[in-house]
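Q: I'm a student working through a structural biology exercise. My instructor gave each of us a protein and asked us to get a predicted structure, then write a short paragraph describing it. Mine is Glycerol-3-phosphate dehydrogenase, mitochondrial. I'm not confident about reading structure output yet, so if you can add a plain explanation after the tokens, that would really help. Here is the sequence I was given:
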Amino acid sequence: MAFRRAAKVTALAGGGALAAFYGLSQLRKKQTRVAYAEALEQVNVPFCDELPSRQAQLAALRNTEEFDVLVIGGGATGSGCALDAVTRNLKTALVERSDFSSGTSSRSTKLIHGGVRYLQKAIMKLDYEQYMMVKEALHERANLLEIAPHLSAPLPIMLPVYSWWQLPYYWAGIKMYDLVAGAQCLKSSYVLSKNKALELFPMLKRDKLVGAIVYYDGQHNDARMNLAIALTAARYGAVAANYTEVVHLLKRTDPETGKERVCGARCRDVISGQEFEVRAKCVINATGPFTDSLRKMDNEKSPKICQPSAGVHIVMPGYYSPDNMGLLDPATSDGRVIFFLPWEKMTIAGTTDSPTEITAQPIPTEEDINFILTEVRNYLSPDVEVRRGDVLAAWSGIRPLVTDPSSKDTQSICRNHIVNISESGLVTIAGGKWTTYRAMAQETLDATIKAHHLQAGPCRTVGLMLEGGKGWTPTLYIRLVQDYGLEVEVAQHLAATYGGRAFEVAKMAQVTGQRWPIVGKRLVSEFPYIESEVHYAVKEYACTAIDVLARRTRLGFLNVQAADEALPRIVHIMGKQLGWSEQKKQEELNAARTFLYQEMGYKTRSEQLTNTTEISLPLSEVDRYKKRFHKFDKGNKGFITTVDVQQVLESISVQIDENTLHEILNEVDLNKNGQVELNEFLQLMSAVRKGRVSDSRLAILMKTVEETLEERGLVSVDRSGGGV
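A: Happy to help. First, here is the predicted structure for Glycerol-3-phosphate dehydrogenase, mitochondrial. I'll explain a few features afterward.
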């Protein structure tokens, strides 16, 4: 009854407004579709169906006498600036010192959102600027979902309510979020009873739960979205090159004013080491956390405007959340907001927000990982054991918060973004958020064109389809299955990753030699990534194994162990295609493993089981695990090797190849002497019992073998004389 009364009050409060809003929304949705169609017709720039190679792009950088615009930085904002510029018929170049989306743009919460918490602050503080920031972001959210439908989709997010008074309070705030979105509201939010909330999100803590509110935001594959923007710019004629580092800025003296003006940059191809000059009428600094480095190149006395903040995320198995329902914790123990979201059939949780130093290789800390796990435990049922060992990957992204150098209060953080033009003409775009990259790019180009007196038309990126968006339909994957004989899961993945370009990847897929699937060899069994994606990644300017692991596929972000398993095959395929020597292949293996170890959380995961791991098991369990160990250690040597395991497996007619066995034992072989000692096994089982290690292949293998032996009534071969 209490829930019904509360729901009735909230419904009466907003019913009339929503009725009027609905009618207005239908009209505006029709107007929006017309606007998209008009935007597409306005782009009069030649479109190249075949991407130029990276070598061709580098040659164009060297040989072009002068570009209109040189954009430095290949993240979402920089790529957005390049796409905006080239579709205005400006001769455009884009350079990135690492890979496209290698920084913050690939390490987000994967949401396309206006910011519910920003709207709350805007209302509570009557802050019009913050309100307009949310309104702009909601407009951009709608546009991004429209122009890249294969990479993005609406996602329902549940806000659980544990106090009756909070129900109308949160409902009013979420309904305001819908109203601010106007015609671009994805789907109307709604209230759930306790039972319905638990039905939709059964992992939720039921104690004191009174109900929930569900609202909608967008979700996307951030690195692939960034890449789609850069590739679209390249197809429209922008000269885009990754692994092209700016050594210093070029300047000339303006004959009219006598002042120095930025007129390009000296660049270095990171792959070959060759240097060359790129001339341009204007240069845009879109380097995210590294904004100040480029500003210092322009003027050593430039004040620092970037105040970096680290945001850590973790990835857990998909069973921690429903397939299509996220969760928002609006008030964590320290006042931050935590999202708990399904993503790529896994569960992503984050983010933290803490000051950090600027680095190209941010590393997630154990403290941040445990903070997120603690907050997750607070919202999930006690029946769900949230284990440290279930963290499959973790990463840190640096959010470039900025202060406005033009403001009198230079210490105040700018809540949105800033566009600044230096005395020498360097245009800097900094701050902002993923969702508003397009609007930021538009504002940047508008300011650039005005300041540098460039001849260009208006912005044409609203409604402009991104790479793969054209030709995509929700049922495209069925054609891939029927036409090529791909597994359904693989076909769905290709359609959701490459959109209309998925057929190009499917054509490259090798025959499996099996009855089904006919084509499409997986890189690793539990993920739908296939070998032909590595071949296609090279066409998409992938230069290193890390590019494939982290940004062309998302394997490194989803499961570091699976990524490590797939790595040798990826290096082999890339090496063959790019002509790598054996030394180069080994360098790529080492670099990628360092990346997984440091930046993707493999280090913190592996540190859960070390030589110093305490053995804290009851005596009864120690005896049980010793007996299990001795089923493999027949000679009571105190250790087991791959030979010991192989012999026991053969006795129950199980075959595992030697390389796989080496990998399984190596995970537990702490002193790396080629064998697993009893003490190491007990350390493993202690860590498993505490939840610090999960999915240990050796622990599961030995338990399964023990159970099989007991079921069959077998005794050890050496004691029975070999009989069965």
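A: Here are two points you could use in your paragraph. The chain has 26 helices and 21 strands. The chain has a mean pLDDT of 88. It's a good idea to check both against the output above yourself.
Q: Great, thank you!
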